Amino acid sequence: MHLQIIPRIMAFIGDIADQSVIDICCGEGIFTRELAAHGARATGVDLSKRMLGFAESQNTGTPVTYVHDDARVLSRLPDSDFDGAICVMALMDIDDISGVFRAASRVTRHSGWFVVVVTHPCFDISPRCHRGH
Q1: For residues 39 and 16, what is the distance between their CA atoms, to the nearest angstrom?
Q2: 32, 97, 101, 110: most buried, per Cβ within 10 A?
Q3: Which CATH class is domain 3-119?
Q4: pLDDT by residue (tens digit) across 69-83?
């Protein structure tokens, strides 16, 4: 994840203290931990057990829950359990985007929110562009 975008995302989301928030496709858990640091009850979900293991190893006392699940169904999570959901820099890599939106809608409360952060196709954010190639 490009760490410089975190403050902008957090400013967009606003005050999440005491909210229950799910980080869909959490990967290494960077953003999940950021949610928790801002007072949210944060749950990170990822399909990769290896990524979840790494995410768990990075926790330094911040209360975060990690769940192994498929973003397209979120079958291990109950209905209407979260105030909000976020998917950072992952939706463009999922083959069933509609499934992700359905699953996020199911696990968030009626008045809940869902924020999606993706790359814009006109910007190359590959590592080589940061090395000056």
Answers
A1: 6
A2: 32
A3: alpha beta
A4: 999 999 999 999 999
Paired sense of beta strands 82-88 and 41-46, if any? unpaired
Structure-block tokens of residue 112: 């809940």
- Cα–Cα dist 30/122, whole Å: 25
CA-based nearest residue to 46, from 64, 62, 23: 23
The residue extents of the domains of the chain are: 3-119
Whole-angstrom Cα Rg for the chain = 14
d(CA 10, CA 33): 12
For the beta carbon of residue 132, count every other beta carbon within 10 angstroms. 5
* pLDDT score, position 3: 78
Q: Rounded to whole angstroms, how far apart are CA atoms 88 and 78?
A: 21
**At residue 128, does pLDDT exceed 70?**
no
Q: Comparing C-alpha atoms, which of 36, 24, 113 is closest to residue 68?
A: 24
Number of Cβ within 10 Å of residue 31's Cβ equals 26
d(CA 114, CA 21) in angstroms, rounded, equals: 10
Question: Where do the H-state alpha helices sit in the chain?
Answer: 6-13, 30-37, 49-58, 97-107, 127-130
Q: Is the pTM of this model over 0.85?
A: yes
